[in-house]
User: Which sequence fits this backbone?
């Protein structure tokens, strides 16, 4: 996506303050906020005072800590009611499709499955089984493993005890300990793979879309394995991580 030049230094500073407070477990003092943003106390105080006047923040008189304000609740509820991950993600996913020349999927986590929200066909697409509204297993798909990697360990354990890891191809992982190993790898490298596990001869690289500890969806690039070599696999993975970063920044 084309970057536009931001306008309004104070607005940018206010957004930085909101982002900083969002990521903290509790309210923060003026010094903590200015140190966290590497900004002067005088500048930070002016912005904080204005934000408090607008009820975007409030300050505790007991310990002089700043908290997110009640005015944000209405904005948040309105934003959630109108939010559609497709509206934000699809333009970036179209660029990913064009860059890689491969089919790109967008999905959400629903129960023990991934549900397809969007499918952006490659101009040289092979006949993939996927369709909008269709489902994938979490354990055998790149998007599914990306979702599993965001879950607490006890939730993953419950999933592995509840779901039979049935082989869909000769490459499907059916050993729970091996799947757990892959989930741990996804947490470390921030992308997942489906190496012909869901469909024979189809390789996928996926990533989850997450911000402020909330998971919005996941996406993946699917390619026939005969078009892959080490260099191309590396390029597709890099493109997936770049797209993940851009979408999450927009979120």
Assistant:
């Amino acid at each position: 996506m084309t970057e536009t030049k931001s306008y309004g230094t104070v607005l940018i500073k206010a957004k930085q303050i909101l982002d900083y407070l969002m990521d903290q477990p509790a309210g923060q003092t003026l010094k903590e906020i200015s140190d966290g943003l590497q900004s002067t106390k005088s500048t930070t105080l002016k912005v904080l005072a204005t934000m408090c006047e607008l009820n975007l923040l409030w300050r505790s008189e007991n310990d002089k800590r700043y908290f997110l304000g009640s005015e944000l609740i209405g904005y948040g509820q309105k934003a959630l009611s109108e939010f559609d991950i497709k509206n934000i993600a699809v333009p970036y996913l179209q660029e990913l499709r064009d860059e890689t020349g491969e089919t790109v999927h967008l999905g959400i986590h629903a129960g023990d499955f991934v549900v397809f929200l969007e499918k952006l066909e490659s101009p040289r697409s092979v006949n993939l089984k996927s369709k909008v509204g269709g489902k994938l297993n979490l354990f055998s798909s790149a998007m599914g493993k990306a979702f599993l990697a965001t879950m607490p360990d006890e939730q993953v354990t419950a999933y592995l005890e509840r779901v039979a890891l049935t082989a869909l191809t000769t490459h499907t992982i059916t050993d729970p300990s091996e799947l757990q190993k892959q989930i741990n790898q996804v947490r470390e490298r921030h992308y997942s793979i489906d190496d012909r596990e869901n469909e024979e001869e189809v390789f996928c690289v996926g990533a989850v879309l997450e911000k402020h500890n909330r998971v919005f969806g996941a996406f993946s690039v699917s390619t026939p394995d005969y078009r892959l070599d080490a260099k191309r696999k590396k390029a597709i993975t890099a493109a997936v991580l770049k797209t993940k970063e851009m979408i999450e920044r927009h979120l």
Remarks:
- The CA atoms of residues 15 and 114 lie 33 Å apart.
- The chain has nine helices and eight strands.
- The chain has a mean pLDDT of 91.
- The longest strand covers residues 214-224.
